[in-house]
Amino acid sequence: MIHVAVIGGGYAGMAAAATLAEQRVPVTVFEAAGQLGGRARRVDYRDVALDNGLHILIGAYVETLRLIELVNPAHAQALLRLPLAWHVQDEFHLRAARLPAPLHLLIGLLRADGLSIAEKVSAARFLAALRATRFTLAQDISVELLLKQHSQSEKLRRVLWRPLCVAALNTPPAGASAQVFLNVLRDSLNAGRAASDLVLARVDLSALFPDPAATFVEQRGGKVLRSQRVTAIDPLAAGFEITANNQRANFSHAICAISPHQVNAFLIGITALSEIATTIERLLYQPIHSVWLQYPAPVKLPSSMLGLTRGLVHWVFDRETLCGQRGLVGAVISAAGEHQDLTQEELGLRVHRELQEQVGALPDPLWTRVIAEKRATFACTPGVRRPPQITPLGNFYLAGDYTASDYPATIESAVRSGITCARHILQHA
Length: 429
What we know:
By secondary structure, this protein is of the alpha+beta class. It is built from 15 helices and 20 strands. The chain has three domains: 4-44 and 53-77 and 204-283 and 385-427, FAD/NAD(P)-binding domain (3-Layer(bba) Sandwich); 84-196, no CATH class; 285-378, Polyamine Oxidase, Chain A, domain 2 (Alpha-Beta Complex). Strand 7 (85-88) and strand 8 (92-95) form a beta hairpin. The protein has helices spanning 11-22, 62-71, 75-78, 103-111, 117-132, 143-149, 154-169, 178-188, 205-208, 210-219, 260-267, 274-281, 319-323, 344-359, 411-427; strands at 4-7, 27-30, 42-45, 48-51, 57-58, 79-82, 85-88, 92-95, 198-201, 223-225, 230-236, 239-244, 247-251, 253-256, 285-294, 305-307, 315-318, 328-334, 367-378, 396-398. The mean pLDDT is 95.
């Protein structure tokens, strides 16, 4: 009899669990924390629902959006879908036209504010050259080198390509995989017009998918066990023995959907998984800092999602516009940098001052909160090796945004990995 254990209740684990539950396959999810979502979860602070990372969805995230619609009855109200708009304060503004792809982007680029005619033509030629090669490189190189090869100006790099690279790959262009970057461009900017839409959450990230997915699983006979830390996964003659909170249970299949820096504690000592363990051990990581500022009055940003280029902050989100949280602003600092040397209080103050300088006069915040994910994503470097979801150990699977994929470490790659594991189980049941 099939009974699947899913270790980890983040987006990858809950995607696997929901896919299995949809087919009425018994599944038990073990989540060490009290809150579902992993690195995309709700954090409660001073009676305010924050997210531990400010994630942007796009229309190309077809599997994530499909599963949200499957499990979340309020999905239409939980998401704000907008045509692509790229707004960098005082420097650049692009809005995609309501036309079929690729005209939507081409016309949007030609109408964009902040670029010279020569720069607009240069960006269009760059995209045309990528289409001619089907967004494929003979050999992976860095994003920075790719931009130089296609004569993209410093202005284009600063306001368009670098922010897009850091937002998608969480890796600075000088060390980021150009091929993975092109995969993102291929499926977002070069696909149907809707693929480039921005899809912004109007609820916290746990309420968007993991919590409704848990209800979906439980309604179909599964279990979602919070505050249940798995301490051992032991292979048996047929299946696995899972130990959590000093309790043991047997399962026919196991999907390990926890962060890569935690996975090897379970893989070490299992001969069939030694090569995968080595691959995971060699991964490097990049941080993401989310800085929350609670102001005493509404803060009117030029747009609900605003790019900044003249300081530490990359993106700012108006949570009052998005979620109705009065006076709350969220700022994102991707990848490594000097901000890591600042205390949380210093970083909160620094972000406030950057907002004042670039957006306008603001009152002092009532409080700031910094949430630092030191190993938020793997470093998406050229040629980086990533482990497969289907392992040499029978009925044992890996799910997570770090596993093999065309995409960088995003919510979509996490969700797709979980679906891949679940579908393999269903196909070989």
